[in-house]
Amino acid sequence: MQIQEILIIKNSQENYGISTEDINQISRVPLLMDLPLRPYGTRGLCGVGGNIVSIVDVNLLLDLPEVDLKAQNSRLLSLNGDLSSNALLVSEVYNTVDIEEANIEYIDNANDPIIAIYKYKDYLVQIISLETLISNISKVEIKSKEVHSGKVKLFDTKEENSTKFLIFAMSNERFALNIDYLREIILSDVNYTDIAGSSKDLLGLITLREELIAVIDLRSYYGFNSDKNEKNRILITSCGDETIGLLVDDIIDIKSFPDRDIEYMRDSFEDNKISGVIHDNNSLISFFNKEVLEEIFSKNSRYIDSKEKNKIKAEDSSLTALEVIVFKLADKEYAFNVEFVAEIIDIVDSTKVAYSDDSVDGVINIRGQIVTIVSLFKKLSIETKINEDSKIIVCEINDSKIGFIVDSISDIMDIKIDELRTHDDELFSNVLHLDGGKRLILSMDIQKIVSN
């Protein structure tokens, strides 16, 4: 089933969507007629368009607090077709939205009323199947009674606390993430900017609405095979003011579990990679929450930009921060601060130096001055290839001249403050955010390269 347009409804906790094909009209909540022994999820009866319809409280069927009938934003949605004998009671109507296929993730679970997740602006909308939701109206809620000495004692059934999780797959195993730490879900078919010297779990950096985000292959982090297919997704997670992307195999569901089914086992798992397990019918789901996320953030802290780090005063955003020379190595762009560049020359043969560091290719003579050639290829673990466009960038550092062989020179440009992101690494000092984030360039720290 392909959804073309949804109506977004809100409550204090979540955002939900309903296909507009199912909705006839939206009106204020009328006076309801109470229904004795009514099924759980219904609030009574009322007249809509000359017909008597059953009023279904969407919140109750989603295990949320019932809709406040007297609230100013509460609305009644009358329905079309086979559902027209019902009307939906909702806390608030937000907006109608045309569906963009790239932003919707369908969930294949016939028994779950949540059939898809849609990314709208900066939040997630859970799309509801009304047919499945309303079919859940099956049991009558009656207070239990117990007789003592001829007197009837009533017991109220208390609402059970629960926690909502996103359930996803990795290598045919189910995992869950506390939904509080999920910001959004995006497709995995994105361009990564590689980071030299990073762990095998770190895929690289991506740009999401001008925000620079490091992406971890969660499958590799947990020791699973990293198979690439169209179902792969990136979970954009936030903890405090820091954000990171987690690549997983597939999205399964969003589901609430009662706290009695959630078992914390922090001290029982090696490497602090699991917070505990969820007892889901006859199976177990491994889950993680804040503590495990903080461990992932900690291990990759040098690649993660917090909101605090990226604060830039609006009045200074157009000022030039530095001038760089952009060059290529193995078809990827890198940059040097022009301040350290003395000259650029054509490639020449170098003379090997005995007992020198592996990263030193040799020395050359430029107008009577000895210049040491340091291999960026070896520093970045890239195969060395010299071509007709290769150049040597000669830099002056601490009164010494050092040359770096590159594949080609791309550009010399001014970088504005709002195009600069700090990146603390063994070889790099900044990430250049160009063309609205579509072009990411790692700026090398020449002094770090030489000192290493």
UniProtKB/TrEMBL annotation:
Residues covered by the CheW-like domain: 3-139, 162-299, 321-452
Entries under SUPFAM superfamilies matching the protein: CheW-like
Record GO biological process: chemotaxis; signal transduction
PROSITE patterns in alphabetical order: CHEW
Coiled coil: none
Source taxon at top rank: Bacteria
Cellular component, GO annotation: cytosol
UniProt protein name: Protein containing CheW-like domain
Source organism of the structure: Sulfurimonas gotlandica (strain DSM 19862 / JCM 16533 / GD1)
Upper classification of the organism: Bacteria, Pseudomonadati, Campylobacterota, Epsilonproteobacteria, Campylobacterales
